[in-house]
Structure to design on (888 residues):
């Protein structure tokens, strides 16, 4: 038995311990928002958060995450995530959409640690996520827009306080 | 895939496509003549509901629920190009609906209702034809429903139908006003008007406006369902062990260890390999590694890339099929004092969509049900019918989002057939066959490699005089079920964009030669244009230099009779400040190309760094695709086409060593990442022409634009792709 915490919910699973986290999410828990792209941590389509840090779930055996908090796109609701998702929708970033769960997870992790990233910082944080439709131009703009929105919310809240 | 436009007149009598044509002509009762381009519009209500959800059906494309939701059937595959937004816009516009009440469903496979009007009786997506072939059809479907609602309201309110207004989802007359929902029960039973009146374009409310995509919400919260995500009761996962090279065959198979592996349900042989069927992916993946297979590779390619290029150059040095001959290029070149010569090399490319190919199939006695994203459902129905012994119409396809495709899912004898071969051995069980990235690269069907030899000259007064061009490449269709679509001696994809070149060259000769290589090829976003535009556009810059003329000015002269070409050329040049000084180390290049009826010009700004590496910093793009149905989707497709074209131009190549593909995954086959993506600006030329496609035309010019920027900076002609990151 392996015990896991996914999106705040504790799960007990009887599963081959070397199964990658990605396949536990997809085949066991039927949480299919996290995608297979390469199986080698090269494309980022499988990105989830492990204790808040973006990781590639295709290359992490489930046995290695037993004590971690795993967040997938299905369970995201942080301020940064909501701002990212809204910016993605406002700018219609998506094309085929298949890589976008991973893009959004990486972008959210970036904004949780860097409130005002530059183009270069965005490129560095997002270069592990491939998009074959090449929506990169809009991804960059959406991250800036999300950062601005978070900044405005924070200053409004701060002002009121 | 514009050669699909060549219709079916020359299709081989024995090919599946011919079979398909005859079957569909019989099924639709249109014997003899072709439906192609006839504007065939099905406004009759189908016996079964057009799509999945229950609601009053107005026609094959449109249902309206009592609570005012308008549900549009999308007959084309959504691979990111925006059909779920673009096609719904056409219906919403004519219907007079509010954008927020519009929903969509993917149409099932049924070519009698959902055929591509440019492809005859075949349902399919490609050749940037979705909006173009649907333009009249879907507007008419929307207008017909609008008139039916008006008629229902007129009867209810006892007023003249012509006075009933529909706007923003509200039906009104004087003091009467109603939403669609209360009228649909009556309206949907009225006879469909056969010639509904379309709106005057000046009254368009949605067409031409920036409106939000219909697929953004699902694709930003993880709920969009791709083939990979299908879960069915009792479903099993299958992985196939394929030979290390295409056309290899299993000679000796030992399945004992794999069969004994935990979670494995069956191991089955199929014509192209050995499939492990297991409870889940990981069990199948582990067991597949335990298969011991001896392969017969005697039918496989043995040459390496350098040998293949040498063979292409050898063929290019001889005379090929002459497919265009204007004036006398040979004589003009002979007389010229200075002849510019160039020999181009273009590599194989993989589609490498992020969703690896996959297909869910369940075979029962009288039906085969499938769940996947099909780019050519009609072909898939026929092929799977053949495998399972069922009629094509017994093959039911539930259409899903495609996680990219770029042409890859429009194929024959491929992954769909493999999935059906597995499923038919396990009847009654849903089988999800998935490929890993390695399977996908190994079994990719590549954009053909090509070699072009060119000779050209300008006159002493600086005008383009002669152009002799020989393109050598592997045919995409020869030896495949699509072979019947080749017209004449040469697969047109080898010379497309060249033989119909828009530059007014007085002495132009284009030759083409097919070279057989035992590697499988396929249409890759923009097909032949993807490489040919690079060749043409960089050679034009060589001629411009020889003529001592500015590349834009030189092109203007040669395009004097092509107003739409001039339109994009001038707009891109103006917006990019062509001719104005640039920062030190930065150079500009321009390219203009027409594909699939759409004109695109791009200016690339390239910075060459002190260490000789270079970056593409900015691209300015102008596009003329007729009426801009969804300007923001058009911009997105230009951005994406530029990104994918740049990806190929800079760093993509499939290479062979002794016949074996050397790339396996994204570390050796390396698509563009965000840190190499330039800033992109898109400008749309206003137009009242019927719309043409945008899925592919944004791609072809970029390699040439970047190549020309490098040429401008270094003076060294650029003739080989990929360019790498150094000059």
């Amino acid at each position: 038995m392996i015990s896991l915490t996914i999106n705040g919910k504790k799960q007990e699973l009887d599963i081959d311990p070397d199964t990658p986290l990605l396949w536990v999410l997809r085949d066991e828990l039927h949480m299919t928002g996290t995608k297979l792209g390469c199986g080698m941590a090269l494309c980022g389509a499988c990105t989830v958060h492990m204790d808040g840090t973006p990781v590639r779930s295709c290359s992490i055996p489930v046995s290695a995450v037993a004590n971690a908090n795993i967040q997938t796109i299905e369970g995201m609701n942080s301020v940064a995530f909501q701002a990212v998702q809204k910016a993605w929708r406002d700018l219609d970033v998506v094309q085929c959409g298949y890589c976008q769960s991973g893009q959004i997870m990486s972008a959210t992790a970036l904004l949780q640690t860097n409130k005002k990233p530059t183009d270069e910082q965005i490129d560095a944080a997002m270069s592990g996520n491939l998009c074959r439709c090449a929506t990169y131009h809009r991804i960059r703009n959406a991250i800036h827009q999300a950062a601005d929105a978070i900044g405005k919310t924070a200053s409004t809240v701060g002002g009121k306080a | 895939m514009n050669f699909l436009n060549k219709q079916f007149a020359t299709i081989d009598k024995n090919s599946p496509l011919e079979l398909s044509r005859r079957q569909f002509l019989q099924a639709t009762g249109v014997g003899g003549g072709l439906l192609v381009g006839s504007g065939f519009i099905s406004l009759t209500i189908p016996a079964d509901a057009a799509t999945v959800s229950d609601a009053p059906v107005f026609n094959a494309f449109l249902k309206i629920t009592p609570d005012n939701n308008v549900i549009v059937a999308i007959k084309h595959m959504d691979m990111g190009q925006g059909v779920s937004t673009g096609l719904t816009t056409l219906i919403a516009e004519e219907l007079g609906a509010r954008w927020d009440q519009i929903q969509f469903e993917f149409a099932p496979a049924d070519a009698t209702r959902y055929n591509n009007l440019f492809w005859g009786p075949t349902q399919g997506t490609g050749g940037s034809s979705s909006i173009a072939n649907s333009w009249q059809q879907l507007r008419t479907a929307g207008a017909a429903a609008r008139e039916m609602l008006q008629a229902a309201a007129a009867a209810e309110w006892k007023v003249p139908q012509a006075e009933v207004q529909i706007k923003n989802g509200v039906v009104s007359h004087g003091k009467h006003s109603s939403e669609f929902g209360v009228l649909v029960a009556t309206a949907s039973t009225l006879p469909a008007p056969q010639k509904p009146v379309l709106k005057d374009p000046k009254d368009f409310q949605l067409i031409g406006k920036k409106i939000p995509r219909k697929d953004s919400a699902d694709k930003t919260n993880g709920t969009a369902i791709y083939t990979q995500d299908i879960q069915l009761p009792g479903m099993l996962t299958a992985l196939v062990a394929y030979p290390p090279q295409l056309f290899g065959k299993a000679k000796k198979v030992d399945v004992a260890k794999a069969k004994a592996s935990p979670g494995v349900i069956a191991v089955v042989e199929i014509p192209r390999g050995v499939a492990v069927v297991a409870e889940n992916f990981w069990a199948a993946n582990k067991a597949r590694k335990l298969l011991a297979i001896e392969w017969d590779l005697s039918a496989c390619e043995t040459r390496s890339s350098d040998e293949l290029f040498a063979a292409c150059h050898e063929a290019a040095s001889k005379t090929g099929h002459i497919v265009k001959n204007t004036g006398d290029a040979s004589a003009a070149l002979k007389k010229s004092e200075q002849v510019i010569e160039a020999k181009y090399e273009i590599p194989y490319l993989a589609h490498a969509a992020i969703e690896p190919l996959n297909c869910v199939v369940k075979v029962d006695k009288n039906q085969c049900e499938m769940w996947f994203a099909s780019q050519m459902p009609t072909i898939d129905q026929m092929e799977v019918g053949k495998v399972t012994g069922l009629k094509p119409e017994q093959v039911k396809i539930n259409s899903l989002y495609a996680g990219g495709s770029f042409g890859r899912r429009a194929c024959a004898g491929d992954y769909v057939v493999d999935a059906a071969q597995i499923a038919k051995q396990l009847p009654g069980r849903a089988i999800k066959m998935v490929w890993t990235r390695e399977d996908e690269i190994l079994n990719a069907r590549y954009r053909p490699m090509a070699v072009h030899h060119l000779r050209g000259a300008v006159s002493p007064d600086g005008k383009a005089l002669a152009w002799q061009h020989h393109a050598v490449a592997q045919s995409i269709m020869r030896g495949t079920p699509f072979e019947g679509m080749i017209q004449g001696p040469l697969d047109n994809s080898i010379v497309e964009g060249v033989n119909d070149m828009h530059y007014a060259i007085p002495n132009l000769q284009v030759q083409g030669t097919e070279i057989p290589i035992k590697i499988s090829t396929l249409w890759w976003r923009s097909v032949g244009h993807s490489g040919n535009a690079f060749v043409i556009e960089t050679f034009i810059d060589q001629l411009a230099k020889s003529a001592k003329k500015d590349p834009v000015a030189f092109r203007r002269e040669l395009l004097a009779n092509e107003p739409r070409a001039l339109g994009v050329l001038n707009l891109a040049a103006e917006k990019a400040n062509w001719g104005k000084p640039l920062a030190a180390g930065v150079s500009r290049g321009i390219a203009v190309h027409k594909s699939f009826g759409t004109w695109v010009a791009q200016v690339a700004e390239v910075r060459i760094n002190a260490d000789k590496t270079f970056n593409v910093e900015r691209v300015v793009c102008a596009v003329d695709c007729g009426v801009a149905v969804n300007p923001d989707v058009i911009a997105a497709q230009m951005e994406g086409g530029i990104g994918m074209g740049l990806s190929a131009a800079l760093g993509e190549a499939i290479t062979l060593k002794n016949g074996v593909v050397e790339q396996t995954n994204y570390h050796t086959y390396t698509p563009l990442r965000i840190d190499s993506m330039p800033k992109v600006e898109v400008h749309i030329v206003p137009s009242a022409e019927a719309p043409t496609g945008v899925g592919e035309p944004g791609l072809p010019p970029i390699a040439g634009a970047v190549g020309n920027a490098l040429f401008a900076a270094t003076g060294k002609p650029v003739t080989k792709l990929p360019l790498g990151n150094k000059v």
User: Anything to note?
Assistant: The domain at 79-160 of chain A is CATH 1.10.150.120 (DNA polymerase; domain 1). Chain A has a mean pLDDT of 95. The first strand of chain A starts at residue 2 and ends at 6.
